[in-house]
Amino acid sequence: MAYYALLNAQNLVTEVFSGKDPGQDGVADWAAYYAKVRGQRCLQTSYTGSIRKNFASVGFSYDAARDAFIAPRPEPAEYYTLNEQTCQWVMTPAGMLAITTDAIKAHFDMIANQREYDSLLTIDTYKGSNVPKWAAEHAAFFTWRDQCWLIAYQIEADVAAGLRPVPTPDQVISELPVLVWPS
């Protein structure tokens, strides 16, 4: 069994279906046959990527110069670049940094929620509080936050220096210290 992709005039995949293998039943080019019957350009595709680099899916584009099916560019688009060998989108270091920064900020808010603060911004309003418990929680939180950013910036420097690969946001968060709240 072979797989085929139908393309519209803009070379976008509109349908993927299983069909006959080339040469089966005496037909050398089933893609040409399906194209004639369906009235659309038809190209063979492969789950293994051995034909046109990537298995076609509806919404993919076909790039004739690369002879490849290419997935739509993920969003935000400026965070991704096309790997010319695989014709797959890969996140840029700048994109990973932006996404990781957002993940770290969300992590801060989650930790603040452990003590029923809405967010990092809410706990910041307790700086200099006359209630010792809240003032101590503020001090502990922001000391911890600063340690987290120092570690994150060191990871970024190590990536830039080629000392380590670009980590995922979850990998960075796993390397951050645990906040010990005051009793």
Description of the molecule:
This protein is α+β, with helices and mostly antiparallel strands and 183 residues long. It folds into 2 domains: 2-90, no CATH class; 93-174, no CATH class. The chain contains 5 helices and 7 strands, in the order E-E-H-E-E-E-E-E-H-H-H-H. It has helices at residues 30-38, 93-113, 120-124, 132-160, 169-174; strands at 2-7, 13-19, 41-45, 61-63, 68-70, 80-83, 88-91. The radius of gyration is 26 Å and the shape is elongated.
Task: Compile the SSE list and pairings.
Elements: E1 2-7, E2 13-19, H1 30-38, E3 41-45, E4 61-63, E5 68-70, E6 80-83, E7 88-91, H2 93-113, H3 120-124, H4 132-160, H5 169-174
Antiparallel strand pairs: 1-2, 1-3, 4-5, 6-7
Q: Tell me the count of domains.
A: 2
The largest sheet, given as strand count, sense and whether it forms a barrel, is: 3 strands, antiparallel
Strand order of the largest sheet: 2-1-3
Give me the number of helical elements.
Answer: 5
Q: Based on DSSP secondary structure assignment, what is the total number of beta strands?
A: 7
Model regions low in confidence, pLDDT < 50 over at least 5 residues: none
Structure classification: alpha+beta
List SSEs in N-to-C order. Answer: EEHEEEEEHHHH
The helix content is 25-40%
Based on CA inertia axes, which overall geometry fits?
A: elongated
Q: How far apart lie the N and C ends?
A: 66 Å
Report the average pLDDT across residues: 95
CA-atom Rg in angstroms: 26 Å
The amount of beta strand, in percent, is 15-25%
